[in-house]
């Protein structure tokens, strides 16, 4: 490989490493916000609710073993009482709708729906403040 090609490859690797560090830092900050919110919700006696997963088309839902608070009005994302972030849309089978399903936690974003359609993004802090004003004081 010539010198120019090697430098380009190294620059690309450096850029990828930088982006990965930024992504991890964002998830760490968002995770800390969620944990702080859950602690504040407990102190304020903000009652959690049982979380449900909805199908991708939004027509059907399934139970989960999770409790928490929905972060968006469309109930597609939530913070669990465990302080973790959950995406609550999935491909649901008839058996899922009957028995319920499990939802793995996801990496929390600082902006929910970033990169989506205009008006679909929501700052995590704003979503949490809507649920419990003053949670971050």
Task: Describe the protein's architecture and organization.
The protein is of the alpha+beta class and 137 residues long. It has one domain. The chain is built from 3 helices and 7 strands. It has helices at 3-43, 94-99, 124-131, and strands spanning 49-55, 61-70, 77-80, 85-87, 89-90, 111-112, 122-123. Strands 4-3-2-1-5 form a 5-stranded mixed β-sheet. A hairpin with a 4-residue loop joins β3 and β4 (85-87). 21% of the residues are buried.
Q: Which key features would you list for this structure?
A:
single chain; alpha+beta; five-stranded mixed beta sheet; two-stranded antiparallel ribbon; 7 strands; globular
Number of domains: 1
User: Helix tally?
Assistant: 3
What is the number of beta strands?
Answer: 7
Low-confidence stretches: none
- Portion in helices: 40-55%
Percentage of residues in DSSP E strands: 15-25%
Give the helices and strands as they follow along the chain: HEEEEEHEEH
Please state the structural category. Answer: alpha+beta
For the largest beta sheet, what order do the strands appear in spatially? 4-3-2-1-5
Average pLDDT metric: 92
Silhouette: globular
State the end-to-end distance: 56 Å
CA radius of gyration is 19 Å
| Biggest β-sheet description | 5 strands, mixed
